[in-house]
């Protein structure tokens, strides 16, 4: 029905309108969910443990966390409604072959969110200061990512051809796609987790990347995909739900934050972005879009390796890199603004590299 009402418009224009509607609905529902859930988190004293080594964060004590629940619930509710309407033919033509990667991408996001939830729960409810150990989180993330890739491969929905941005070169990875994708998914999910250290930082960067994940399939309308032509539309809808979720969450998460997303939210963001990247067949371009996330993780890794190799010397004043700028006397608002602007530029670069 929706596509019928838009008769005469080009397919990519219809995709853009559909994505805008999904984004708006998730935004509104996230705002409503935040109004309901945040007071509950506060009353249950689900307060973010504050790292004492970051003195700039001392004023954040008492701020509730696990706020990612708000936008995850909103996203899933709208996407469930969308898929019901889509399957009934009300908003467009159903593509049975694209439903499975759509569902698997959501499961990749939710699976990682559940890992984050367990970690947050152990820290906040069980009062176990460290929550899950780094090793435990890594093993669980590998299991979730491996299950996702296995199901995508078994159902013949995993693109093994890697597009090199800014060129027409495509490299068929064959079976090597599995370990490569596994490494990238786990690495990127941890990147979004590490980035969530300042008010609005992960939300704003994630919003920029989400916009790129909507614009890219709208611009190319499936021409670059070697698999199901409907997958760009489905991935654009998922990306639109993430954009609406993060914009809605920023209402509560901008400086000074009323709530933090916790590992529950940050791991969900990474999982959804990676799922959309694989659905769209543009993994490298999406990594370019999200390189601020990636560099946050690399800065921590570089700092650790250099510190051990030089017996105490440091590359950055503190890692991840957003703490370095804090110690350079940048305000929290300035850091988030600059990182967001850089993310917007990188997102435009990633989109351009995919379509040129």
Main sheet strand line-up: 1-2
Estimate the mean pLDDT confidence.
Answer: 89
Strand elements, count? 2
How is the biggest beta sheet arranged? 2 strands, antiparallel
Rg (CA only): 20 Å
- The rounded distance between the terminal residues' Cα atoms is 34 Å
* Class of secondary structure makeup: mainly alpha
Outline? globular
Q: What kind of assembly state do the chains in view correspond to?
A: single chain
How much of the polypeptide forms β-strand, as a percent range? under 5%
Describe the structure.
By secondary structure, the protein is mainly α. It contains 13 helices and two strands, in the order αααααββαααααααα. The protein has helices at residues 2-5, 11-43, 68-87, 96-124, 134-154, 177-195, 201-220, 231-253, 262-280, 283-289, 291-309, 321-327, 332-355; strands at residues 161-163, 170-172. Strands 1-2 form a two-stranded antiparallel ribbon. A hairpin with a 6-residue loop joins strand 1 and strand 2. It starts with a helix and ends with a helix.
């Amino acid at each position: 029905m929706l596509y019928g009402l838009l008769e005469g418009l080009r397919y990519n224009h219809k995709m853009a309108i559909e994505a805008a509607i999904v984004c708006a609905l998730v935004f509104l529902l996230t705002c409503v969910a935040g109004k309901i859930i945040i007071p509950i988190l506060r009353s249950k004293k689900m307060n973010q443990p504050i790292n004492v080594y970051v003195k700039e964060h001392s004023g954040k004590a008492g701020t509730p966390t696990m706020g990612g629940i708000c936008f995850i619930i909103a996203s899933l509710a709208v996407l469930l409604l969308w898929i019901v309407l889509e399957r009934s033919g009300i908003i467009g033509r159903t593509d049975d072959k694209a439903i499975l990667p759509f569902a698997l991408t959501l499961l990749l996001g939710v699976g990682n969110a559940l890992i984050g939830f367990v970690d947050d729960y152990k820290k906040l409810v069980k009062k176990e200061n460290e929550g899950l150990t780094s090793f435990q989180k890594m093993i669980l993330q590998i299991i979730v990512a491996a299950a996702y890739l296995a199901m995508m491969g078994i159902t013949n929905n995993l693109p093994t051809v890697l597009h090199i941005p800014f060129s027409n070169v495509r490299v068929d990875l064959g079976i090597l796609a599995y370990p490569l994708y596994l490494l990238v998914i786990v690495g990127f999910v941890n990147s979004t987790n590490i980035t969530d250290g300042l008010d609005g930082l992960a939300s704003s960067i994630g919003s920029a990347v989400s916009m790129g994940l909507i614009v890219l399939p709208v611009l190319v309308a499936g021409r670059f995909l070697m698999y199901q032509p409907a997958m760009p539309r489905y991935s654009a809808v998922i990306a639109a739900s993430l954009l609406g979720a993060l914009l809605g969450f920023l209402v509560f998460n901008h400086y000074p934050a009323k709530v933090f997303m916790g590992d529950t939210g940050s791991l969900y963001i990474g999982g959804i972005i990676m799922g959309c990247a694989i659905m769209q067949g543009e993994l490298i371009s999406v990594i370019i879009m999200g390189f601020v996330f990636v560099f946050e993780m690399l800065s921590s890794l570089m700092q650790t390796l250099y510190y051990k190799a030089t017996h105490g010397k440091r590359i950055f004043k503190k890692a991840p890199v957003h703490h370095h700028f804090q110690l350079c006397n940048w305000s929290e608002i300035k850091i988030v603004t600059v990182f967001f602007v850089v993310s917007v530029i990188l997102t435009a670069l990633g989109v351009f590299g995919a379509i040129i």
